[in-house]
Structures are given as C-alpha cells and as structure tokens.
Batch of 2 targets.
Target 1
Amino acid sequence: MFKNEEMEINLGPQHPSTHGVLRVKLRLDGETITHCKPVIGYLHRGVEKICENQTFFQGQVWTDRMDYCSAVANNLGWAEANEKLFGITVPRRAQYIRTLLNEFNRLASHLIWLATHALDIGAMTVFLYAFREREDILDMNEAFCGSRLTTTAFRIGGLREDMPPGFEKMARKFLAKFPTCLEEYENLLSENRIWKKRTVGVAMLSAEDAIALGVTGPVLRAAGVPYDIRKAFPYAAYGEMDFEVPTQTAADTYARYLVRMAEMRQSARIIQQCLDGMPEGPVMAKIPKILKPEVNEVYHATEAPKGEIGYYLVGEKGSTNPYRFHVRAPGFINLQSLPKMAEGGLIADIVAAIGTLDIVLGEIDR
Amino acid sequence: MTEPIIPPAPEVLEAPAGPYVYDYAASPQRQVVMPKTVPLPSYRTYLAEVKAAAEADEAKWKKMQADYETAKAKAEAEGKDAPKPPVRPVPRKDDNDLKTPWPQEAKDADLLLLQEVLGAKVEEIFEQAGELTCQLEKGAIHEALTLCREHEGLRYEMLADQSATHYPAANDFAYSVVYHLTSISRRKRLRLRILVPEGFVPESACSVYPSANWMEREIFDMLGISFANHPDMTRILCPDDWEGHALRKDYPVVGWGQRDVAFREDRGGMIERIALQKAGQLGINLKQPKAD
Amino acid sequence: MGVMQPSAFEQILITTKVEKVMNWSRATSVWPVTFGLACCAIEMMAAGASRFDFDRFGAGIFRATPRQADLMIIAGTVTYKMAPVIKTLYDQMPEPKWVIAMGSCATAGGPFDSYHTIQGVDKIIPVDVFIPGCPPRPESLIYGFMKLQDKIMTSSLADRYKDIFEEVG
C-alpha cells in the first residue's frame, strides 16, 4: 500500500543543523532520500554590491562578515587580491605575521567545524572541549586586532601594526598545550563506535565528481586529490614553510574528519615555523594614502579553511572604488555537491553531509 | 455676461514606474552614478593608449619648442634678453612600492596553443599581473571550454569561478562573462572571457563543467544574463518574485524599496482576533487590507 | 506608636504576590529557540559554551522548535527572503514570549545598507531588548539577557494586556 509513495520534506531554513539558514527540499522513499535540492539566499546581504560602492580600503569590513568563522582567511585573500591589482610588494615580516594569523584562524575554523559537526551527530562533549581551545585563539585575535570574530586584520600593503607585546608568548603557550587537546578530541571520537557508525561510508563523493563539481578544500583532499593552494600556488609566506598536505582516499565523512584533524596538526607546525623564523623589518609597504588603479582585472585565490576562496576584482582607471567585486566562495561551490552526497542515503545522514561540507551561509549567500 | 466658471482639471499625479517607491532625493549619496568608462583590460587598447599618450607628449614638446622660437624671435626683435629654453619634462618617479601591472604580450604556451587551435575565434590573448587571459568570440565559448578540458596539452579540469561584469558605457556589448579555469595536475590558471550584448544568450558551461550550474544561476540572478541549455535557469539568491538585477550598474544599492516591509505590531494577532470577533458579532466586515 | 509589629502568622510565612512568583519562575528559566542567522550566532554559541556558560542564568536549553521556547534571540542579519520565516516562527511561539535583537544587523541593519537587508528586525516583530555590537561579545549578550530578566521580573499581567483592553474596549 505504501509502495512507490514518496514524501516531501522541507529541512530548514530555521537551523536544519547548527550551520545557519539553509533550506533543503527533500523527497523521501521511506527513509531513503531520492531527491535533494538545497535552496539558498536566506542570508543574501548584497556584499558584492556594497563593496562596489566603497573604496578599496573599506571593502575589508564586509569580507570579515562573509565567512564569519574564518574572517582572517577572507581578509588575507582580499588583501592579496588588492595587492595584485595595484602591484604592491608586501614586506617579509608582514607576510610572516599574516601566515601566522591565518593558520590560527584555520585552527579556530576547524574547531568550530568539529564542535558543530559532532554536536549535529550527537556528541555534545566535543562541543564544550573545542570551544574551550577556540576561546584562547579568539583571545589572540583580540590582542592583535581588537576584535574576537570580525577581525579586519590586514591592510592593503601589509599590516596596520606590528605584533603586540606578549603575543609571541601567548602563541607559544597555546602551541605547547594544543597537541594534548587534539589528542583529547581524538580519544573522544576516533575510535568511538557511534561516531564511526555515523560517519564511515556516509556521504561519499568521489574524486572525479568532486573535481567536476569544483569542490575544493578538505572535502577534495579526503577524496585523494592533494590539491592545496598553499602548495600549488604559494602565497604569503607559505612558499618558505615546511608542511604536508594530508590526504585520505576513502572519500567519506570519516576521511574528511581525519583530514581536518591532520590539517590542524600541520597548522600548528606552520605557526611554530613562523614564530621561530620571524624576520625583522617593517610591516607596511610604502604606498600612497589613496589608491587608484589602472584598468586591470585579477582573480586571486587563497586556501581558506573551507576551500578555495577567490576574489575577482576589476579596477577602473582613476576610480577609488572597485568596478567589480566578486567573491568565489568555497561554501557556495561545495554546497552544490550536497545532492550528490545525500541522494540514495538515509534522511538521518543528511545532517552529517551538511556538517562535513563545513558550510557557512554568510559566504554562500554573501 | 460672465463666463461660466470652468473648474480647473485636477492635476493627475504620475504613478511611479514600479510597485515600489523609494525617495532617492532624500539621500543623495545613494543615487546611482553611472560609470563613464569601459574598464575592460586589453593589450590592444593598452598599446593604443600608450601610442596616443606618446604622440600627445611629442606634440606638446613640439609646441613648447615652437613657442620658444617665436618668443625668442620676438625678444630679439624687441632687443630684450632671450627667454629660457624649454626643458622636456621627465615623468615623476614615485618613491613607493607600487609597480603597476601593465598588460603584456602573450608568451605562455597555453594561450598560443588556444590561438593556434581556435584560430579566428580567439579575439585577443594577453598576460597581466601573471594571469593569462583569452578573449573569445561569444559563440565559441562552449567549444573553447571543451577544448580546455579535453586537450592533452591543456587539461584544465576545474572551473574555479564564473562571473560577469556590467559595462553600460560600452557601445557594442553590455556584459563580459569570465571563466576562471584551474588545472590541478599542471598547476595553472587561465581566464576565458566573452563579451555579450544585451539580450544575447550564451551557451551554458554545465555540460562541460557541472560546477557552472549555480554560478550561472547567480549570474542570471545578479545581472540578468540567461544561459542556453542550462538545467535550471532560475534565481538562486533573491526570491523568485524579485524585481531587477542587483549587480547591474543602474541598480541602486538600497534597491527599489523592497526591503521596507512593515508587519503590524500585534503580539500573536490578539488585537486583530478580538477586533474581528467583535466586528463579526455586529455584522461588519472589518478586515483591513494587508500591508502589500 | 504607628509601627506595626509583624504578626505571628507573618513571622513564619513569606507572603508575596502570585504574579511575582510567576515572574520569578519565568525569568529564571527562559528557554531560547535556536535561531542563529549570521555572525552573531557564533557568539551566541560561544556564550553557551565553556567559558561563558549561559546555563547559569537558566537559559542554556536551546530548543530546536519555537513551540517549546519563550525567547527568540535574533542573532544576525534579517533579509527580505528570511523575514516571513521569522514572522511565522514568532507567531508559533506560545505566550508569554520575548525577543532579543542581538547585534547591529538585527537592531538596525548594521553595515548592510543594501537592497536585500531588512533594516532592523523590529519592522517584523516586537523586540524587548536590543544589544549593540558587531558582533556583541558574549558578555554583552549575558548583560542583555539580564536586562530582559529585570524586565520580566517587573512586568505584570495587567500591563501586558493593558493596550489590548484599551484598544478593544
């Protein structure tokens, strides 16, 4: 009697999981998803339009609020795209500090991912543990930029100020304790039977599909493709750093968990190298107060915690505003693969699929 | 006999064009300023500009010399001291770290290969700020994308980004659509560009790169360019009943007033419910028109 | 003299109004609905997590459904597409209900003065407490929440429905 009868379910837009205002239209056959369509735009704030009507310097404020879990990574991409547009060379010390802050930000973003992903699947304790370490990173953000979340960390041409006194000590103290914290999370999850049941073999996305759908970041690396922009197209001070690109071949949610945990270890390694090899010198290039570009267009991509974030800027001669400001948001492209991951799976697993993509609706809708 | 008094016809106010009204005069900084130039980077335009600037510079120098000659002749005739000979102005050198990336001639093998294979369909190739750009004829984009993906010497596996720009000041086109391709195996990036007039429907890239699906929907939503053979050409960010395309240059930042929604401040609809109940007992239809 | 000595009855009993007891119990167990929109949601989560521990105020139980919640914390930018959803969710909450507008976006549009952003959530639903900041720190949220508790403690049933009774007659 109930055969061949499909049910339509609407997931969201009020908190489908702890990831923001995403809405997913689902068609179910029993508990199996036969059709899945994400609907976005519930947080569309017109960032691109606003930034086209602000000067080059002012635009940074809005990049903070796109991917609010990793504001520094957005700032870095924005600053480097502008520097490419104007042809500015950034001093080496500024590059190192940028790298340092960016890696701290990657840790904070991955910790948020771990906390919310585990919370969605049902592991409450990890949430409290991960936020404990994240608060320490936010304290460092605050010491450097004066703000916890929306950092506005950089300026075109370098940094506004050098590191504050005591910052290095804070960072080293954090690095000393962070490996044990990582072990704590792994003790809670890695061999946890429930965690493995909910993640192993769930939300598969093969390497071919991932590349065709433009997926980048840890999701692509968990499918066995060692594509990391920090290695492939080095920027900031990543060319001088010694680190590995962790990959897995299983291409499921558990593999993505392993990749991100390994990435956090590599980030800690990069921070250590930045602190040890910090060069002396100025932190700001010599540039005029008002920047006016020549006719030029740039696309600059950097590796944000979620994947490739690219800024496409068009400069108009004699104008102080960008003529076109476009952001290639990693979450926007990655979310396209949700139907591929979820269709054929169980309804309960779509929460794992959304969590493992590590989406932030602020950058998807912009 | 007095003229009959004809009452003056009531002045008919012109209805606003759209369903929304927004007082732009009240906030002058929000008025739309249309761009006057076409900032489309191009090596050919750059060369022409450089040539024109050099010619203007030369003409100015010639004029200065001629002026000097006449002034000298005049001074000699009047028996005064000769004026100072003119000095050719040298461009001022700025002491800063800016090094403007000018367009350069294409030397990269990928661009040359594209030009060789596609022939006349390639309108222009150049490099700028270390990025490769290939401008194509607008009908050849699908062929070029297929070539970039399939050709053994190119192998651009991923479409990283697709975006468009509005150029209202241009004469023969209205939009440029850019495709940013990434080759993961060869670690290279390439930009393809087409120039599209208003109303033209370019071929969708979805059949070659499935990742173009949402990006093309976004372009449709924001700029109003629709793509042919796209599986689902609908709005993606704005709601389906939205009017206007936000990233066009003639669209104001604050929009056409859609954002000024007003709901009645009535906790849980209590006032309305009681009022309707009372009115119903008296047989009056009190239903107020809803805010549109 | 004029001073009244407490009677024996009053010495063994605390007397209060029923309304005050109700307010006290409401103010100390406010259950918010999980309603994160944007950046402020992360700070709301941080307020609920280890260091700040929102549970101390009896408000740590974030409910996933509006039908079980008393308080809606609008944490983030309200857009044109989201506005009807917010209105629906608010209408689904049982009385008595309160709303905190967290952050400058929910208060007045914040930095997003653009076509798709509603300039303040008070255009859609009534708001009890506004918290400024972009985003507000967790301490600000806690302070705003304590202000709401004060408001609940001093509120009375008669005040709440006074407008309605006057208007309807």
Target 2
Amino acid sequence: MKIERTIKYEADRVKGFGDEVSSVPGCEKLQACIQCGTCSGVCPLSIYMDYSPRQVMAMVRSDFKNEVLTSHTVWLCASCYQCTVDCPREIRITDIMYELKQRALQEGIYPKKFSIPVLAKEFYKMVYRYGRVSENLLAMTMFLKSSPLEALKMWRLGLGLILRGRFPLTLEKIKRRDELGRMMKVVDQVKINKLHDELKQARQHVAARSQA
Amino acid sequence: MDKPSKQTVRIGFYICHCGSNIAAMVDCPAVARFVGTLPHVVLSRDYKYMCSDPGQELIQKDISEHQLNRVVVASCSPLLHEHTFRGAVEAGGLNPFFFHMVNIREHDSWVHTDPAEATAKAKELAHAAIMRVAMHKALEVKKVPVHPDVLVVGGGIAGIHAALTLANAGKKVFLVEREPSIGGHMAQFDKTFPTLDCAACILTPKMSAVGTHPNITLLSYSEVTKLDGYVGNYTATVKRKPRYISEDKCTGCQECIANCVYKEPKFPDEFNEGLGKRKPVYIPFPQATPQVVVIDPQTCLNFRNGELTGKCKKSCVAACGDKEAIDFSQTETFQELKVGTVIVTTGFQAFDAKRMPQYGYGKFPNVYTALEIERLVNTSGPTAGHVVLRDGKTEPRSIGIIHCVGSRDKKTNRWCSRVCCMFSLKLAHLLKEHTGAEVYNFYIDMRAPGKGYEEFYDKLLEEGVHFIRGRVGEVTDWARTPDEEGKLVIRVEDTLAGYVRRIPFDMVVLATGLEPHADAQDVRRMLNMSCGSEGFFLERHPKLAPVSTFTEGIFLAGCCQGPRDIPDTVAQAGAAAAEALALIDKGFIEQEPNTAFILEDECCGCKSCIPLCPYTAITFDAANKKAVINEALCKGCGTCVAACPSGTIVQNLFDDEEIFSEIEGVLAHE
C-alpha cells in the first residue's frame, strides 16, 4: 500500500476562496457553521461521498479549494434541500453546492473521470450547439469521456434499448439554430462574475450614500 | 428655594485629564484658561484625576476658600462619577444640585481624532455647563419608606430559596405558586448532577420548611394577576384558584382519594409527565407542599365542562367525614397583598419535542423526553424506578440520548440551554445503572463548565457510555438491515470518525431545551419588566446587576432570566433575596429630585400627558380637573414635559431657564 503525506501546508490553501464563496448571495451564512453534522446526517447521498457535506463546509471555509473542487461530494448532491431545511444555522448548503459546481466547471477543476461533472458539461455543450439534448449521444459522450470500459460492459442493455426503439440513433436539433447561436453569443458576453462585482460595487455605493 | 441672584453666582470649574484619556486629545489647560474668562467663573483649574481623593478635596477646599456656590466638572460620563462629585460638593457645604457635570471623555476625547477640534468642542460644552449651572436651584432628595414584606412569584427551587432566606432574616414573605404544590421542576428530577444527590432528598426539607415557616404565607394554586404601585409600596392582586378543598381543614390524610368513585386512577398524571395515572381528586406527589389534595373539575364527575352539576354520589365527601374539608362551592377569589419588593422566580418550560418532527416524538412510542426519563428512573415514579418501554414490560437494551433538541437551532431556539449536556450525562449514568443497556450520547459540543462537571463527564467516559459528536439527522423506524428490524434507527454523522452511521436503539431520549413560559410576555407586562429577544426576563445589567430589573424593587432569579442549573439558581435566588433585604433594611428609597411637577393653576386638564407616561406616574384628579404626578413613580424621563400643550409641566434640573441657557452656551461658539 502506498502511504502519502496528508499534512496541509499554508501553500495548499487558496487564500480567499472561502470568503469568495461566502460572499455569493445565498452562501453568506457559511461562516456560521458549527460543524454539527446535521447536513451529513440527513443527506440521502452522504453515504457515497468522499467528504461529507459538513467536511465540505469546513474545507471551503479553510480555503482548501482544490481538494473541494476535485471531490465527488458536490457532484453527488441531488439538490433535495434536506440539509438546507434541517441546518440549525440556516446555511443554504445546497446553494453552496451549486456555487461550487459552477466554479468547478468554469475553472475546469473537477474529478475528470467522474461521470456526473462530465455529464453536466456535455449536457450544456449539447444544448448550446443543438438547442436540444439527444440522450443517446449524451450518454455515449459521457461514457467515452469518463469510463469507456464501463460503457462496453453495458453493451447488452444498450443493444436491448436500440432494438426496442428506446435509444434512437438520430441526432435531435431545433430549427433556426443560427438564432440560438446569436442568443448564446450574447449570453457568453455576460460575465457572471463581472456582474457579481458590479452588483457588489453598486450595493456599497448605495450603502455609502445612505450613510452620508 | 433660595436662588442667589446672578450677581452673587460664583462658579468653580475643573477639567480632568483622566490620565491621558482626555488630556491626549483635549488641551485641558487651554480649556481651563478659556473658561476662566467667562462671567461668574471665580476659578478654573485643570487636574490629573478629579475623581481621586485629592481631586475631591480640592473642590471642597475651593468652595470654602473662594466662597463658590456653583461647581462644574468636565470629565467622564455622569453615569460614572456624577454621584462622586455631588458628594464632594455636598461635603463642601453646598446643595449637591448646584453642581453640573460635562462629559468630555465619551462625548469628546474618545470619539474624536483631531486635537484642535476636540479642544474647541470641550470649550463649547464647558461654556454651556457654565451658563446652565448659574440657573440651578437647590433641590431636596426625597425619602420614601419601604414596606418590609416581600412577594415571591413562583415556588420552584429559586422561589423556595429566596423565600426561606428572607423569612429566616425575619421578613414576611408571600410565596405565590400557580400549581397545587411548590417544588417546580426540581421536584420532578430523580438525581442532580454531578453529585447524584437525590433531588427529593435535598428539596423536601426546604419545601416543608416553607410550609411551616411562621414568616411565609404560602399561596399555592394561585396566580398574581396585577401589580400596582412603586418600589417600596406595591399592591399585588392574587387570584386564588378553587381547589375545592378547604386548605385549613384538609389534613392530608388522602381518605378522599382512596374512596373516590373512580376505583382506579384513570387520568394522565401531570407530575409524572403523563406516564402515570391519577384520580380526579389527587395530591400531585407524596412530598407535595402544602399537603392538601386538589380536585380537578375537568375530570371530577361532580362537574361537567368545569361547571358544578352535583351528579356524583360524592363518596369523597363521606370519606372526609367530620373534617368537612371538601367544598364544592369554592370559586375563584382575589386577594390583595401589600409588599415593598417583588422577587420573580417563574422558571421555564421544557421545549415541546413535537416541534422537531424528524425525531419522531409523539409518533414513535419509545421516543421520550428527558423529563419523562426523570420520572421513569425515579423510585416514586410511575414504574417505581423500573425502566421499561411504553409497553410496560420490555427493558431497553440500547438507548440513544440526543442533545440540543430545541437548543442552538435558529429554527426553534437559538440559545444553548446550558443544562442539557449535564442532565444528559446524568440520565446516561442512571439509565446504564438501571438497565445495563448500551447508552449513546449524540452531542454537538460537550459543555461541562462547572465545579465537578468535567470530572463527571470523565466518569461517564470511563463507565463505557458512548459519545458520538454529531447532531442527529433523523430517528426512523425504517429498517435497512436485519438488526434494525423493530428498532428506532438514528442516522447521524459521527463527525470525529468521519462516517455517516445508522445505529439501532430500543429507546431514544430527547434532551429538550429550556425556553420561557408561553405566558412570559403577559407576566412581563404585568410586572413592568423587559424581555430579551429570546423571551427571558431581562436583568438590569448582565454582569453588574444580574438579579435587578429595570423596575426598582423587582428582582429576578432562576430560569425565568435564562437557562441555568440548580447551583446557579440557588446562588441567584440568594442574591435576589439579599438585594431585597438591602432595600428593606435601609427602610427608605432616596428619590432623584429630577422629577416632573405640574403648575396646578395652569393645568387645563387635557389629560394629554396621562397615557404617555411610561411609568404610569400621572393620574387625573377628577374633582379639580387637574393632572397629578406621583413623585415616587416619576423617573424624570421628561416625556410629559415635552407633550404638555400648555407648558404646565416642569421638570426639576431641566426647566426652561436651565435648558435655554445651556443651548445659548453651546451656540455662543459659531
């Protein structure tokens, strides 16, 4: 068995990450976490996670960005909101999970061979390009990009689905894709982080004015 | 009032350096030089520490040497040292109200960063004070006598201890308790942490002492409904609920209970948290004080919906015989008590565990509250101390205790209830001792700060009680594995081991937190107290006046002020008794003369002021059609003065002359 050092040095932290996440609207209460573990206790998927939701909260707060974004936890969250409902500190844990997922995709830091982030990314790409999702193509890309060997093992199921017409091999797309393309171009120009910054500045401005 | 004419006003001014607190920001000698140039100022000095003995002696010496008749000190907050300097002025032979204080520390040096501007501000403030003090009049401090009797509201351990302390000091005490017996929550407990003293063994002697003490009038099954008056002179109205038993005649023989037409106890017993049964005529528990039975009109056959019908054959009356203690004709009566001080010890209520449905209380029979377990492990409890599940026979082999139920949770109660960690440890110990079961504690943080508490936690660890750090997600009866069949399963993250776990139990205990009584707000309004945001009664100062309230003569002790354990409650009850004693033994209240008064000739009787007074000090004299201010109740807030449309209300130390001169002084500088 290979033994690795697990100690964390200051250089392993991405300083400011915790503050950044908790400054996003909806994620502010993160700082109030008392590490009671209610979120993990009620989470139906915590039993499969590498880090429990409680640990993710602690890791975000302590700026362990790479460790959090490469963990499976955020991608296993099914957004049932049970943790958010039961958290005694009213932390919107599910929303924090979403924030982490978005960051992971934007910055390209996620478990590369794990099917769920791959699925999320391919899903987005496909909608972007065709305006529709073709389940067959999506499933295949997901398997190819995450675990091609797993896909081969499922050949019998796949064959059965194709034979019964449940797995059409045609590509679905919308009409007038050029218009969608123009829309998406506008969307691309909108930098969500820039928007956040502008919103923050505007709020500070208003606060300063009301104080004066 | 002998007011010296303006020509004879001779003012002494002193500015204090307060070490460097003031001097670092304000040029004190410059201020002193400036004030020295103002009219009527005979001398003007700066000094390092005015509040020191030499500082005070300086004032006294100057008064006689320079024939001063007014003194102004510019220093810290009047809250801190107004009293000191008034004393010094009085010792110098002047009326203490010929003094005025200027706050140039909190209002100036501490809050400004520019020395030049801070010095200018100090000059302005000093100028205003000089103008004002010239107008000051001699005032008398009034003395109001204090009635020596005390009212204690609530007969739990806090009320019992406060009442006994006062009664032993020779004071007459009225102890009002709303339940049929005193004892409160402590009477329900089995043992007390960390010493494991039997609660009844240490409480019963105190209860019977209350019952027999010649200085204590015990009014059980009664409630205070009204409190009028002011410190030293309160009138309390007490509602005596009908118990349908004459307290003087009942000997506590309980023959009536044995002979009730209900042969078997049938109704849920409040004292045993509904785990046991009682008859319509009952005594709450064997050590109840007073030893007087009570008839519950909701369940007694002689009543229907609480109304007397006379349809029962009244075998209890026959059993009582010559004593004739049973009296079905009793009705609510009201009694008035004259007291000087009030001690409020109304206690707490346990959090309703049904408010957290994820823990299944009320749904799964074998989920219990901590108070239920107290009764279950108690030898005089419903099962005679035999710990069995609700089926009445199965002994639990595994028990899970969940901490922080209704505590530290923004969705229910935000505060830590302080006692749950410790009583959970105690119950863990008792349950293990009674059943030999595997006992688990699920906690967020273990809070054991008290004498012998940490050692008790240690003892439990060594006894083999399991501790899992994690707040329980849910209690469920849905089995996932064969060994979970028929059990209650706790799903929790073991945060220290780092696993989510499912653990099956026979019995789950909820360590319910402490919260204010549902009617605490009504009590607060009736007694004119304040509440914190969580609903507990507010002390005057969290550190330096922990048993006083904002209403003079009303004191607090026990859990009505915030969650606390028995040792702290008893200590606080003693402190409240001492505060009351201090007032009583002094014999009088000194009243600040800054009260408002009405120029009777000018009052038009419009009554504008009456509803505005926050201290209900103003009444209307219907015969003369004038408002009247009760000086003893007036706190000098000035609300009526500002509201009076005809300018008929004047306030001592704040009359128009004084205030306008002060404003002129400030405005003399651009």
